[in-house]
Hints:
Layout: H1 9-15, H2 18-21, H3 27-61, H4 65-85, H5 93-103, E1 138-141, E2 144-147, H6 153-160, H7 174-182, H8 212-237, H9 242-249, H10 251-281, H11 295-311, E3 313-315, E4 321-323, H12 327-334, H13 336-361, H14 366-369, H15 375-402, H16 413-416
Antiparallel strand pairs: 1-2, 3-4
Helix pairs in contact: 3-4, 3-8, 3-9, 3-10, 4-7, 4-11, 5-8, 7-8, 9-10, 10-11, 10-15, 11-13, 12-13, 13-15
Amino acid sequence: MQSRVLLPCALAVGLGSVAAVQAEPAKSDVLDTYADIAAAKFEDSLISARALQDAVNTLIATPSAEALQAAKAAWIAARVPYQQSEVYRFGNAIVDDWEGKVNAWPLDEGLIDYVDASYGGPSDENAFSVLNVVANASFALSGDPVDAAQITPVLLAETLHEADGIEANVATGYHAVEFLLWGQDLNGHGPGAGGRPWTDYAPGAACTGGNCDRRAEYLRAATDLLVSDLDWMAAQWVDGGAARAQLMTDETAGIAAILTGMGSLSYGEQAGERMRLGLMLNDPEEEHDCFSDNTHNSHYYNGIGIQNVYLGEYVRIDGTLVSGPSLSDLVTATDPALDTEMRGALSTTVMALGRIKTAAEAGFAYDMMLERGNTAGEALIMGGVEGLIDQTRSIERVVAVLGADAIEFEGSDSLDNPSAVFE
Length: 423
């Protein structure tokens, strides 16, 4: 249990209490900081996605093992600011409605390109799970013919993504690009990520996997679309942007939006759907970044994102600090002990997620941690889950102290009704 640090009475009297020293910031100033950090995070996501775009264009123009590795490194770097931005989901409809374009998972990758025979074929749940758009210039979706002679951003976004209303038909975003760079991870719980060869982009007779020109078209279209989607979202948070304007319309609702994003990402999304569920199923396919074995970073930077929104501090990819009046300042002015508790809970969670990151970078990959009977892996993952749950309880106390509107955080069967997971 997180301890609360209280000042001795004599010291409190001598100082006139910490709450009196710490002037309460205006809610509008707290919201401005929150919006400024959003603008910086999404701009950083855009900048790093453009670097990924450059690397992808180089790979397509002059395929080589080095060019593929450079594109992979750019993809991993691009995830750092984006994962910190996910705390803006849930409380901000404009982000939540858009997020599925750029970060939807898990995906039936056979929709996009070739897969191993062990992947299986079409199912009752998804008739398009092995459609393989890269290999087919024309096909039918729900009885309608589709001309895919040219693979374009419009084809991906308007025809293929969530085709037939099936969420697993992910045709766009980070994870589509990830699959095209790494290929399937066929190692199960063993070491190693996806092993797509650079020759899957080679011209002529050197091409492996078939249809290298169309694979390159798909990769370019998906990357270009990712950049344009991030460009649009970044614009929503600058002065005059729709997301910032909506946030500032009602200060009480704006504070509630911050808390909703923090609590929902902490609890139902990250602790539940992204971590506890995979551990319950012992399924390496339940990794967030399953092709690249980058899940440890995604979890870690989600935790950092929640922390930096509460503290009102974000370090940009160029090292610049964006900071200002924060939710922490607002809580301190009312209940300094609760702020201490909240800061401590956030720090404990980041440390737990950091242990997962450190272990993975030393060779103990996240999909290895998920293996049934791996007690060390279970302990690492549950350390993160428990930290996230504990910090959610502190967030609930912050909601009560600030008198925010009634807030309902996202839940997860893995946490709220575990038996339902196996039904």
